Amino acid sequence: MGSATTQALAAGADALAAARVDLDTARELFAASRAVAGSSALSGALADQAAAADVRGALVGRVFGTLSPVAQSLLAEAAAQRWSSASDLVSGIEELAIRATAKAETADVEAELFQVSRIVSANPELELALGSRLGDDAKKGELIATLLQGTASTGTTLIVSSLVQQSRGRRVRALLTRAMKLVSAERGRTVATVYTKAPLTAEQSERLAASLGRIYGGGVSLNPVIDPAVVGGIRIQVADDVIDGSISSRLADLRQRLAG
């Protein structure tokens, strides 16, 4: 990611923070992202740094004039920024849509996205069908909406169904992982994946989240994974950090020391 895109994403996050959005706004932003991704002429024009920012903003008005004023304003702000590439602009609009969903939805979207990711991981045929370049993208979105009906919030369903309609060669699990990070970032939370042999109790989860919150600062969202390989104790992953207190890890370390 180039420095121009990094700054553009930060500007988009600031604009979203000042806006009043709902799930309809997020839905409009996802639709705009698909429209821009589907037209190289449009994405190129909106990301063209040779054109003045107000010219690019006027193009947003002409193309997306039927959208709500809030969605148009956020899109115009995105178009006014400098992007390292047209594809980065598409990703930037998609990021705005995910963040808008996180802002508007009250449910635990991070946890729901994690569960969807686990379902996809356990079903290779489903992941292949959703990530394939073949097939109707709208049908993929409908499939996810049907699978998640009654088990996930409207916001989570919107994110997942929108992402599978616009995978752009990305793996579904990678899309979901990125979405989880963006939702957590929008809500000022850190995501911790917790591997244990048996489920944690509610009290244990609360204590762990509080402890990790003191370490990393701010709120922490726990994604629990039951892993038989964790013989005892617990293994926690936060971004690139791994906190491993499991017996299996200590045994592996001991075997390595004996072999060395």
TrEMBL record:
Its main location: membrane. HAMAP family: ATP_synth_delta_bact. F(1)F(0) ATP synthase produces ATP from ADP in the presence of a proton or sodium gradient. F-type ATPases consist of two structural domains, F(1) containing the extramembraneous catalytic core and F(0) containing the membrane proton channel, linked together by a central stalk and a peripheral stalk. During catalysis, ATP synthesis in the catalytic domain of F(1) is coupled via a rotary mechanism of the central stalk subunits to proton translocation. Keywords: ATP synthesis, Cell membrane, CF(1), Hydrogen ion transport, Ion transport, Membrane, Transport. It is found in: Cell membrane; Membrane. This is ATP synthase subunit delta. It comes from Microbacterium gilvum. Belongs to the ATPase delta chain family. It is a peripheral membrane protein.
